[in-house]
Amino acid sequence: MKVIEDATKRGAKNLSEFESKQVLAAYGIPVTQEKTAGSLMEAVTAANDIGYPIAMKASGPDILHKTEHNLVRLGLMDDAQLDQAYQSIVADNALNVSEVLVQEMIPGNRELMAGLKRDEQFGPCVVFGLGGILTEILEDVSIRVAPITRFDALDMMESIRAKKILDAFRGEPQVDRNALAELLIAIGTIGLENQAISEIDINPIKLVHGKPRAVDALVVLKE
Questions:
Q1: 136 or 71: which carries more pLDDT confidence?
Q2: Exposure b/e, 131-152, CB count within 10 A at least 16 = b
Q3: In DSSP terms, which residues pair with 125 in a beta bridge?
Q4: What is the pTM of this model?
Q5: Sheet holding 34-37, edge to edge
Q6: SS3 state of residue 210
Q7: Mean pLDDT of the chain
Q8: With bands split at pLDDT 50, 70 and 90, how would you rate the model's confidence at 134?
Q9: CATH superfamily ID and name for 2-30+108-221
């Protein structure tokens, strides 16, 4: 893929969130509607095109752990809030933020994660489990070697301890398991077809009417 080739040529260690989602979208994985902006005017235009409420994040391949660096603003409701958020994000001179990502807000309390790890012995492996901050706390994940089938993907869902989170929950519909299976299968395909990728982290995956949507993503490249 061109986005991967370009990043490799410039010696990048990973793709930006926006670039990472371009890779996912190319394989049919649903991602958030979003646009990059290099100025306040571009950010305002993007927000109005997408529609409030929106989220804003610092953007760029060298900007990792955005939440830890306080470079994420959620639930912005109008141009005035966006202006304030933009100024506060680009004011972080330590990270030299020159671009922001303007993104639709995805509601919902359930957060899942999925990704890819490239094992030296087994090759690309697909990972699925609980997302958000629970990923590191509970370490409730299942792993399968790519390529995976629909049966494998569905079995991964049944293998996590918190599998009931996929059922109807507090007025929200049950997860569309077929759609989630397609997402997991696609991750395995990405790993098999793109040897330059060493790791993929999609966290969180949120649910829109029961269907998965990648809200944040990171593609790490081989050294």
A1: 71
A2: bbebbeeeebbbebebebeeeb
A3: 117, 145
A4: 0.94
A5: 34-37, 100-104, 54-58, 72-76
A6: coil
A7: 93
A8: low
A9: ATP-grasp fold, B domain (3.30.470.20)
